[in-house]
TrEMBL record:
The keyword Repeat does not apply. GO terms for molecular function: 2 iron, 2 sulfur cluster binding; metal ion binding. Pfam families: Rieske. Residues 4-106 form the Rieske domain. CDD domains: Rieske_RO_ferredoxin (cd03528). Its cofactor is [2Fe-2S] cluster. Transmembrane segments: none annotated. The keyword Metal-binding applies. Keywords: 2Fe-2S, Iron, Iron-sulfur, Metal-binding. This is Rieske domain-containing protein.
Length: 110
């Protein structure tokens, strides 16, 4: 596992999120009240761009079909809903995050 520099801390202000491509992976970095989280950026249902979704606490909602994921763990909280039909979706990968000299660092497998 290796830590990669993603961005400066000022690029992801509190209560915001932003997508980055690191070593060929799309990663969503979220800053929730000063706590940084990193998960896969693409929804496991239909690959919706989570960086365009909505944050509610540590939950991000996919803008495409409404799947919800926990930013702290990548766990799928609910799948997409189509009227009364609820579908399942898979968990996303979650990554360790640290701040070093004002830079956001994300740990990824080599």
């Amino acid at each position: 596992m290796t830590f990669y520099r993603v961005a400066s801390l000022s690029e992801v202000p509190p209560n915001a999120m932003k997508a980055f491509t690191i070593s060929g992976r799309e990663i969503l970095v979220a800053n929730i009240n000063g706590n940084l989280y990193a998960i896969d950026n693409r929804c496991s249902h239909r690959k919706g761009d989570l960086s365009k979704g909505v944050i509610d606490g540590t939950t991000v909602t996919c803008p495409v079909h409404g799947s919800k994921f926990d930013l702290s763990s990548g766990k799928a909280l609910s799948g997409p809903k189509f009227g009364p039909i609820k579908l399942k979706t898979s968990d996303l990968n979650s990554y360790k995050v640290k701040v070093e000299e004002g830079s956001i660092m994300v740990e990824l497998p080599e």
